[in-house]
Design goal:
Length: 412
């Protein structure tokens, strides 16, 4: 109980170290992709890099939750950070020795993605062992704030480093970031899970437990379809923004950089506000409302004429902020209502499904946008998201009549 009373100290101690790891990883990831771009000048090479980075989460992520729920989550995070650092160190050393290979870079990208497959759900599953249930939305807001800030600053740091040094030196930055993350995590004490699991792992049985945990949670089950549709529609929106800037507004690289920054800034500010206030008391209303507002922002962005780029900037900022507005309370709800012994499995299962949904969205949005134009796709996406927001509210509004522990009691 004392740990939960002092949750802020433990939470920020963990994220203090994680912020260095996230920032360095973001900078290194940008630098690797830029190296591939310069060395190959090939769209196929970049596509391979994207697929390699997606595969571990989409496939191995289905099983990662089994380990996360059976073993010490702190150790899993430490091992994941260590694995990423080791791959970065290996690539840096080989580059120092003059061994440059795109295949080697792809292998490192795969290992980094594999580490992230375990790292992210393990960290999310660890948070409820530190943070009281009533504070999870605030903690989620602070966590999202730190993640978004690192995501926003990482590419800028990577671009700066690539302009003054070479990739091998930048890879060493990742080793330092991982070291600081591991040290900060090591000194934090967390509550122990009391589990009836044996050391023998039965993946099929454990994954069934994860599926049953979702099925038994009525609100989560009803949210699953709206969240899946949201992912399919939302991810392509961010990916297609550069095309909107280039083909519709006839913008330059500077304009695109501004748009990317405003999108991340919107996510950051929304995360800060949610972290400080806890967001709306009715969490399902909050999820539905922000989903609908994201759709409205996209719908208007597709309608404005090409001479109103500054209005588009405002709308992109709103897209980023509304994206955080439905993602943070959704994650907090999962953390609060899923039993601790199944939390890792559920988070990994959700993340894996979303990882499959993202490329599905791109395969749908890409050809359609190519035929009808990006602006028209944004209108269609906006209408879909507004519909999803309404559907989400209709399906889940009854659960907002309960508060906090009462929701868990009714569903558990």
């Amino acid at each position: 109980m004392d740990q939960l009373k002092n949750w802020r100290e433990s939470f920020f101690a963990i994220y203090f170290g994680q912020s260095f790891s996230l920032l360095s990883s973001s900078a290194v990831q940008f630098s690797i992709i830029w190296w591939i771009t310069v060395e190959t000048e090939s769209a196929l090479a970049l596509t391979i890099a994207s697929v390699v980075g997606l595969l571990p989460q989409a496939i191995i992520g289905l099983f990662a939750g089994v380990w996360i729920d059976r073993f010490n989550r702190k150790k899993i995070i430490i091992l994941a950070d260590g694995m990423v650092a080791a791959s970065s160190l290996l690539l840096g050393v080989l580059f120092f020795l003059g061994i440059h290979s795109s295949t080697l870079v792809y292998v490192v990208l795969f290992v980094r993605a594999l580490g992230e497959t375990f790292h992210k759900p393990a960290l999310q599953a660890l948070i409820p062992q530190i943070v009281p249930q009533g504070e999870l939305i605030k903690a989620g807001g602070f966590g999202q704030m730190i993640n978004t800030a690192c995501t926003m600053l990482g590419p800028m740091l990577g671009a700066l480093l690539m302009s003054i040094t070479t990739l091998q030196w930048i890879m060493l930055l990742d080793v330092l970031g991982a070291f600081l993350a591991i040290v900060s995590l090591t000194i934090v004490k967390t509550s122990q899970l009391h589990s009836n699991h044996t050391n023998r792992i039965n993946f099929v049985q454990d994954m069934k437990q994860g599926k049953l945990a979702i099925k038994s949670n009525k609100a989560l089950l009803r949210l699953s379809i709206p969240m899946l549709i949201s992912t399919i529609v939302f991810v392509p929106l961010g990916t297609l923004l550069p095309l909107m800037v280039r083909n519709y507004f006839f913008g330059t690289a500077w304009h695109n950089g501004l748009i990317q920054t405003l999108f991340s800034l919107g996510m950051l500010i929304a995360a800060i506000v949610i972290g400080l206030t806890g967001g709306l008391k009715k969490q399902f209303l909050m999820i539905s409302l922000f989903t609908g507002l994201l759709g409205l922002s996209s719908f208007i962005a597709g309608l404005i004429p090409a001479n109103l780029f500054w209005v588009f900037c405002i709308l992109v900022f709103l897209m980023g902020s509304t994206g955080s507005g439905f993602n943070i309370p959704f994650t907090a709800y999962v953390q609060r209502t899923v039993p601790p012994e199944n939390l890792g499995k559920v988070l990994s299962l959700i993340t894996s499904v979303m990882s499959f949904a993202a490329p599905v969205g791109m395969f749908i949005a890409g050809p359609i946008a190519e035929i009808i134009g990006v602006s028209n796709w944004m209108i269609i996406a906006g209408i879909l998201m507004i519909f999803v927001g309404i559907m989400s509210y209709v399906l889940t509004k009854e659960f907002d009549t309960n508060r906090g522990h009462e929701v868990i009691k009714n569903e558990g």
